[in-house]
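Forum: Protein Structure Q&A
Topic: Joint prediction for protein chains with partners

I've read a bunch of threads here and the consensus seems to be that you should model interacting components together rather than docking separate models afterwards. I'd like to see that in practice. Below is the full input, 281 residues plus whatever partners are listed. Could one of the regulars post the assembled result?
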Amino acid sequence: MINTLYLPGFRFLPTRLNRRIKANAHEVEELLRGIVGKRERTMKEGRASNDDLLGLLMESNVAETKQAGNSRPIMTMGDIIGELKLFYFAGMDTTAVLLTWTMVVLSMHPEWQHRARDEVLRVFGNNNQPDLDGIHQLKIVTMILYEVLRLYPPVVQLDRQTHKEIELGGVTYPPGVILSLPIVFIHHDKDVWGDDAGEFRPERFADGISRASKDSPAFFPFGWGPRICVGQNFALVEAKMALSSILQHFSFGLSPSYTHAPFPVSTLQPEHGAQIMLKKL
Ligand code: HEM
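Posted by a regular:
Agreed with the consensus. Here's the joint model:
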């Protein structure tokens, strides 16, 4: 899983790549500072709406600051920019790559593509925009997305650091130890999932997540515990909406130029791209 050599302190050296990373980070921060500043002004003028994440965040910041009787806002501009970056990164690439792998896998398994399309057409017809009521009725599509998340988890590994001495599984760890949970390996473990662990078999999720594996929790593409992904329901609704629209209007298959090479960059990406041919239905 680790595919680059890590040299402590290397990121501080003024190499060409590091300078570019720094310049890009600065540009993104300036853009976000502009967006937040503009929203602050419209809020002060009473013209802002709070129907998006930024509006909610800023409104709650004002309310919490007032309640605490602080003269300075509880969340600084830096905090708000940090949250925006986190939500963009955590929410955008992960869901995009889930959809990418779903298209790849459904191209490799046309029988599941047909089953998914039959279900989508039964629920939404071939022209209606997918809605939330219908999304909740999609069973085959849900099984497919779970199986894709099992085989190609966008986040391949979770890290945790001990902050005090702790005993886990009979081993005592001092503070400061980094423990890595290799999601991708556990999702492919034959002892947990059976001999077909490496195969695409959405039917394993027919009776829900807990019945799909011998051990539980064995399926945790969104993490586990108090820091579990806050966007998981949103991500699944988004992926179902997008996939339903694609299935309604297109059939698809892999281009001969496609090479299967899952590769962890920051999320699990197809190393040589996902060349997919779509045909209008
Ligand atoms: C397929 C899509 C997604 C996957 C696989 C995914 C996966 C994850 C994982 C593994 C974590 C770390 C959990 C942990 O440390 O235990 C996480 C955290 C997080 N995710 Fe997602 N995520 C997805 C979509 C989204 C979306 C759409 C949003 C926002 C709209 C989002 C927002 C976040 C945030 C803010 C955190 C940090 C939570 C915290 O530290 O308390 N994610 N996600």
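The chain has two domains: 9-75, 92-280.
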